[in-house]
Amino acid sequence: MTGLDALTAAHGVLYGGDWNPEQWTPDVWREDVALMCAAGVNLVSVGIFSWATLEPEPGRFETAWLDEVLDLLHGAGIAVDLATPTASPPPWLAHRHPETSAVDAQGVRMSVGSRNHFCPGSPVYRDHVAAVVRHLVDRYADHPAVAMWHVGNELGQTCWCDLCAERLRTWLRRRYGDVDALNAAWATAFWSQRYSCFDEIVPPRAAPYLHNPAAELDFRRFTSDQLRDVYRLQAAIIRERSDAPVTTNVMNFFPGVDQHAWADDVDVVADDCYTDPADASSPARAALAHDLVRGVRRGQPWLLMEQAAGAVNWRAHNVPKSTGAMVLDSLRAVAHGADGVCYFQWRASTGGAERFHSAMVPHAGPDTDLHRAVRAQGALLQRLRPVVGTRVDARVALVFDWPSWWAGELLPARPSMRLDVLGQLAAYHEPLWRAGIATDVVPPSADLDGYDLVIVPSLHAVTDADAANVARVPERGGVLLVGPFSAVADEHARVRRGRFPVPWADVLGASGEDWRPLEDEGVVVASDRYGDFVATTWSEHVRSDGAAVLATYADGDLAGRPALTRRTHGAGDDAGQAWYVTTVPPRDVLAAVVADCVAAAGVTAPLSDVPEGVEIARRGDVLFVLNRSRAKQTVRLPAAATDLLTGDAVADELLLPAEGAAALHLAPTERTR
Amino acid sequence: MTGLDALTAAHGVLYGGDWNPEQWTPDVWREDVALMCAAGVNLVSVGIFSWATLEPEPGRFETAWLDEVLDLLHGAGIAVDLATPTASPPPWLAHRHPETSAVDAQGVRMSVGSRNHFCPGSPVYRDHVAAVVRHLVDRYADHPAVAMWHVGNELGQTCWCDLCAERLRTWLRRRYGDVDALNAAWATAFWSQRYSCFDEIVPPRAAPYLHNPAAELDFRRFTSDQLRDVYRLQAAIIRERSDAPVTTNVMNFFPGVDQHAWADDVDVVADDCYTDPADASSPARAALAHDLVRGVRRGQPWLLMEQAAGAVNWRAHNVPKSTGAMVLDSLRAVAHGADGVCYFQWRASTGGAERFHSAMVPHAGPDTDLHRAVRAQGALLQRLRPVVGTRVDARVALVFDWPSWWAGELLPARPSMRLDVLGQLAAYHEPLWRAGIATDVVPPSADLDGYDLVIVPSLHAVTDADAANVARVPERGGVLLVGPFSAVADEHARVRRGRFPVPWADVLGASGEDWRPLEDEGVVVASDRYGDFVATTWSEHVRSDGAAVLATYADGDLAGRPALTRRTHGAGDDAGQAWYVTTVPPRDVLAAVVADCVAAAGVTAPLSDVPEGVEIARRGDVLFVLNRSRAKQTVRLPAAATDLLTGDAVADELLLPAEGAAALHLAPTERTR
Amino acid sequence: MTGLDALTAAHGVLYGGDWNPEQWTPDVWREDVALMCAAGVNLVSVGIFSWATLEPEPGRFETAWLDEVLDLLHGAGIAVDLATPTASPPPWLAHRHPETSAVDAQGVRMSVGSRNHFCPGSPVYRDHVAAVVRHLVDRYADHPAVAMWHVGNELGQTCWCDLCAERLRTWLRRRYGDVDALNAAWATAFWSQRYSCFDEIVPPRAAPYLHNPAAELDFRRFTSDQLRDVYRLQAAIIRERSDAPVTTNVMNFFPGVDQHAWADDVDVVADDCYTDPADASSPARAALAHDLVRGVRRGQPWLLMEQAAGAVNWRAHNVPKSTGAMVLDSLRAVAHGADGVCYFQWRASTGGAERFHSAMVPHAGPDTDLHRAVRAQGALLQRLRPVVGTRVDARVALVFDWPSWWAGELLPARPSMRLDVLGQLAAYHEPLWRAGIATDVVPPSADLDGYDLVIVPSLHAVTDADAANVARVPERGGVLLVGPFSAVADEHARVRRGRFPVPWADVLGASGEDWRPLEDEGVVVASDRYGDFVATTWSEHVRSDGAAVLATYADGDLAGRPALTRRTHGAGDDAGQAWYVTTVPPRDVLAAVVADCVAAAGVTAPLSDVPEGVEIARRGDVLFVLNRSRAKQTVRLPAAATDLLTGDAVADELLLPAEGAAALHLAPTERTR
């Protein structure tokens, strides 16, 4: 059995947080469990940073405290997500085996005293990981409280040490077979980098100038794969003895882990998502992150493993959430497919580097506004049981790929550092999010047949096969929207020769010969359809090879050349379309372009008119309406519905208080599509 | 005998600077001494960076030049502050013993060719220090010119090497006894940092993420203590043979040395204070620094050991002082308790890294405006003999503590990096300085009974005992003013559990549950007493538990909650008050709050009306009036006085030219309090 | 035979670029050579980064490919600039001999995988360099295609390793003879830095604070000399067998190489010059760079070895050139004395770190606007054969010196980091460039007798001999214009004692005693001649000792003191003048001052009235007129001429289209001077 089914069947929407009993005395444990029950908590993650407590000396395990903790939780009916404590080895490991600590690109070995200092390639580290996980699994696999396994924490280490260098070479040997294949893929003829054998290869350590981009790209692939090895080592030991689902918490758009390559290794996608109350774009970015992680395992319900109840502590200035925003963040996750919302952490630590991170029980204790809101939220979430297990039905796909991101944004010496992959992704996602149109973020290798509209905001590097997969969209009658600087390179970051985007020039009916980053003032673009506008950052020297020209550069070196094109494939109802945006239009123009593509694809939004500050998202038969504004809002509905959060019937007008929300259960016949 | 008494008895106000004869030929020495005499110089610091000259090879000492220098000075009646040359060991030491050079947190060993590269924990360095100091003391302890000893220079090294790691462990063993006590104090249960023995502990070297805050705090304590050991080693050798006072030059708010912990080790506090002519806040900051160093040894007269006569060279753009500002800087120091003002340095170097630092004799020689001003200042200072040895009588205390500063400003991952301890200290000090109200900066463990008003702008971490010491102020009828984010943590940076500020919630009659850094636009605060205002940076979710609410948040999440409270203790003339400011008010509002506290404490200013740009400060019976502005100013006086600087009688109105000053000797009956 | 004579005699203006056939298959070679012929390419640089291809394993050379390449080029009549491939050794070298890789100031050894990672001091590296160069020379010295040799590429490595430390000590022993001389030159009495023997000296590695400036200065000298050794080693091997000119490509104002010290080592100065289309000051800076490199070998024609045809890839945002700007950049170089213009690179790479650098053949192939412009430019350049070998006849010299630049701009702890040598140089050069007045940038040791006006914008450090050389200018009847903070130091960065500028106080008739960086708002300067203006950044406390005062500080500390002076030497037609500017005037005021000096020197501009956006430059009998603006322009000419670019006769008015240009061949009698 995989996924969250068993857990949610028993508990409804999951609710809880990281709990670190090793920081507290047993009397606090008992107070905590009572408070959890009062708050409706039904899932806690235990033991994430407990290695030094569990194994205070090599081979000597102390588990009595954990026995008691698990029994306590089980007695209270709270499920346990039991962590392998491998994110931070105890100081004794580095003391006895210095090579178990990671080394940075300058050759500096990481010290103990922080966290996550381990070298993921160290055999000694891996041996100790295996031993502690085996001990934990042997002891607790059959404990009735244990409902899920949590491997490590935010796996993300990059290490440049000699041990990792050796593993890198092994990985490269496996990938390329012989060194000539590597030399070709890495284009080592440039700058006299040809390797005569694999032994000469080292990780991209400190160098006088730019590194080989293909080498950097493969080092990122290797690093993600090596972290997956560390995960797999632990998951395998768990699965020998336990049927409970195994997961690890990821960090959505974190560059260090290619989640698409890990999809089959986790039974549940568990994500850490920290919105920033001081950043107005944060809700849209959170929704994008949710659409990403939901897409990793093809729409399967996921788990919001970590978020903050109030403020975080790691920004320079940490504005806290209001209690209203806390609830909206949770409901947004559920609306976008989460079956549970958890927090870092249950009780605020008094010491350590995160003592100023908010928690479900603050330093001032449970008799506080924050904790009262936590308790009220628990009650609210229990009313959302009808959404558990349901799917978000998306007809729009946004294409995103880790290696392409690495190649397109994280390598230096590109035409412009101002054109970034994530920024483009967010720009194309935002109008969809504002309209409440469900969108899956998927890799370019995904089965795209289920989508009426496929948007490729910025896919810098793409394999031939993936390029062909995307190109089929308009050919089969779908709508394809391609952003600038796309399909530029192959999977080794080698620029494709010919008129760009080489693999899509035909399907777009347009092709280019020069990327032209713009001076700061931008360039005027003329368009009958969208009105004249000023485009910024980027332009491309393109010609139409059959596509309709919807906008034209009006001044500058490209005056008279196409800025935006659309080729129609086929005719009539089955006609497909291929749109090509060669610049960075202003937000409203891009929104109009996306809206045109949405309409062309026959996709409709759940509501036709959404007030500013109100956010909608549909999941299954439930339409979530979230009022982020500090004013009350009225939302017109197409039909009557029932608000799951209150149990009230709602006629054609929904009134929401400031920071209020509704989860409208639509009668099946009233579905908006 | 300690302190400056013998020196000032002989010379009056001390005046002089660092003199580095090893950079010059004997003919320049003789010119210099003649110029010193003409300028009224009576104290020079000699030999600070002379180790390589004194001991050109290990164990071979060359002192003939220094014999001659001391004789020359003595012959001219100039006292010598003889330095141990230990700040910068000669290159031969690092060449023969590489481990005598410090190592940074990345493991990089410091090179020779600069200064202060030594490792303070190296036994070999310490042995060589002992040898050179012993040689110097043996030779010169009885030399009649030697009136004071100057140990090293600006002691401030932090070293992360293995030798220092070993000393750190010894220091920790002594502090904590057993490792479990350390584990508890450092909260090592967080992030699996539990140490199984002291041997596993290393300094906070390069790590992948945040360090344990308690470990960082103790490393700062250890570093300050280790530097004190280097000082003590030398002071002890000196004191075996000499009765002259021993000092070292500190750098007021320098984080590396906890001066309060060194107070009993120095006979005189000697401070280096460099104002910045391009920074309008610099005079206030200098006055604050003076109030700090005077407080270190409980008000005893101190020595301004280094300042600049014109420009410094180490800022990115070094605007020089006017000659008027040069004099005002000196008079400010005397007004705030200094019995001497010296400079870095007497004669400008032609080579080396500080060749562009101004000096009392510039490169262009003595026939220059700058040197003429230096000479005129010498004459002026001689007229201030009546202030020598007198005390600044302060009834207001400002509480400041190095470890609390470290915990509250220098550790990362706090609620906001924008709320800084020194900034808060300066904000609460400034209105007192503007009014000319004498203020001592004291540690929280100080005897506070002598103060009518005690201000705690930002005391992040505090021991239980110190917290109780502060809490007694309103209980005994004094006025206590507490700023935001105070008494948050204990001495290990562990957040105190409960409603904050936990140890003062009762005495303040108010308590809080959430620190809430503000969005950039701030928040409106409504107050009948102070008018409505916009507070910025910070707010706290607080309730009154009996205190009067003097201002209330008017919008945002905290609308309606107290922003400023005052609890009255007792009644009638003996009533104490406890004020609590939970935010960062604008400057004028904070000035009004401080003025109310001053009035409540029964403290009065020396003058009731001070023009903008004029600065006053009272020391003993002398009221200093400094006109920093470039316009002449008129100051109304309560009574007639005599201006020590001119000898003139002044009636009820004092006229000062641009950048002019007066030192008014008040008749005892005319004292303003 | 040296220089470009043989090459240009055969080919006219040289045209081509770097070609890296090792990145391509032989079919691409043949396409490339055909395209080169069509574009008028007559010179290509081959093999710059080919070491790993040439010598895939130690001692095993593969040259068949290069044989074919050279034969192909020779068959097409294209001359070859054959490179020694020593800029980037193959990975096998670092793998077998880690000490052949450079180490930075923090002790980090550079990794392979980038380029130019070699340690220039490593004997093993040098042995391998000698071997590969010898092999190349033996094989190709007699190949008829080889017309020039290109040693390495952009030599610029700085290395702090122990091998280089040993070489540094040897270099210092040779420079100073005994260590006391070094101690005196380095002023090591400051900060106890006295060395007891050379063995104690290390390069300026990571240190706790500022390094000794003289040590830094000598390290820069040593580094430049050591790179010259690497060059000389290769040039010597080449010259044993070949008479073709030897060069290496420099980077004009690159601090790492003192070109004046290399002048006699190169047969041709070959420069890499990359304008920035997004920076309006870029054309003026390029002209300044051209005037610099032309001056290195006393006006001999030089070669623009590298420029970009479109965009570069190493800025954060790389705005491309228009095709018009591409041509103007080439013509500017020729107008300023270049006999050839080449590009990096011929064909755009698909892989490697510079895959997004533009090329003469872009990724999209030859059927592109960019390549068509490259071809058209080839035809244009062939029409400029009459300028080949001719000289730029400059009567104005701008004095610049690498060691003085190092001392005055690159050492820290100066009075102001805002006053920079290159900025001052550019400020004084710009009005000359705008007027089309030919200017040579020369070292202070140059023979200045040929110049009527000598400008010294910012010569911080100067030897006595060079100072005297400059001082003779007004004495022999020339005009000397000196900028602020000049002649401050000697060649060891030691400040000269006395009234500044010490060696020129007499010739200027003015002297100063204090450098006074200004507050941000600047200072008002009053002048009858130039009108009142606001000067910024810098002021000096100066008095006139006989000079006329042309402008006076009107407020601030220096009110009433001279800001600008002029001393006249002699009388009548032979009178010389010495001007002294003590501040940073606004651009228009500085232009007026320079214009006055130009007039005083009897220098006239080629045209009296040049429209904004039009740039003129005269070389021999040809006046280049370049219209950088995006509008057409009319330029009035003093007399009829022939436009070499079109062959058309031009009467008294020249009409230029947007980004158009003319090369007017003046009848000898019509010369403007």
Automatic annotation (TrEMBL), chains A, B, C:
E.C. no: 3.2.1.23
Keywords: Glycosidase, Hydrolase, Metal-binding, Zinc
Coiled-coil residue windows: none
Entries under Gene3D superfamilies matching the protein: 3.40.50.880, Glycosidases (3.20.20.80), Golgi alpha-mannosidase II (2.60.40.1180)
Binding site for Zn(2+): C119, C159, C161, C164
Span of domain Beta-galactosidase trimerisation: 394-603
Family in the record: Belongs to the glycosyl hydrolase 42 family.
Protein's name in the database: Beta-galactosidase
Species for this entry: Cellulomonas algicola
